[in-house]
Specification:
The chain is about 45% helix and about 5% strand. The protein is built from 6 helices and 3 strands. It has helices at about 5-15, 35-40, 65-75, 90-95, 115-130, 145-170; strands at about 25, 45-50, 80-85. The protein is elongated, with a radius of gyration of 23 Å. About 15% of the residues are buried.
């Protein structure tokens, strides 16, 4: 999935629901052997975030990835391995290793829609104790408008702001 889609948040939520499941955050300098340490006690699940850092777009650039996959296959009988990849790397992996299946299952995260983003904003504002105000965005209302008309105009500004934000972030 693309950056900002919620891969790391999803993995953290899974780690909370499956106690004892290590969450390994990969980085560019990380050796595949660091993944092996997570499997030392044979947990039910191992979650690997930023797995795209094991892939380098060059000849021989899949060596760390292949080493990690071989280890996961060899130690996967009682352990479920979950790898999260950035969307930019996924096509390269598919093309390079399409002759044989890499994973038992793949799931692609889809971009958020406007309503989901609006709900997220509302939830986060409520959790932070912040109440967004859109009064300053209102144009001058015509004479004779009542409070219902004003509230409708404020609601339209909120929806317009959320739509603009959703468009700007591309659903991420």
């Amino acid at each position: 999935a693309a950056r900002g889609m919620g891969k790391s948040s999803l993995l953290r939520a899974v780690a909370e629901r499956v106690p004892g499941s290590p969450l390994v955050a990969c980085h560019a300098e990380m050796a595949a052997s660091e993944l092996f340490a997570a499997a030392e006690h044979e947990p039910a699940m191992i979650l690997v975030d930023d797995a795209q850092t094991m892939v380098e777009p060059r000849i021989g650039g899949l060596a760390r990835f292949d080493e990690a996959m071989a280890f996961a296959r060899a130690h996967g009988e009682n352990t479920i391995w979950v790898f999260a990849f950035d969307a930019a790397v996924w096509p390269l992996l598919k093309r390079a290793r399409d002759a044989r299946p890499i994973f038992d299952a793949t799931h692609l995260l889809k971009p958020w829609d406007e309503d989901q983003l609006g709900a997220l904003l509302s939830d986060r504002c409520e959790a932070a104790g912040v109440e967004p105000r859109y009064d300053a965005l209102l144009e001058r209302l015509p004479p004779g408008t009542d409070e219902t008309d004003r509230q409708d105009a404020l609601s339209a500004k909120r929806v317009g702001y959320e739509r603009m934000l959703w468009d700007y972030v591309g659903g991420n």
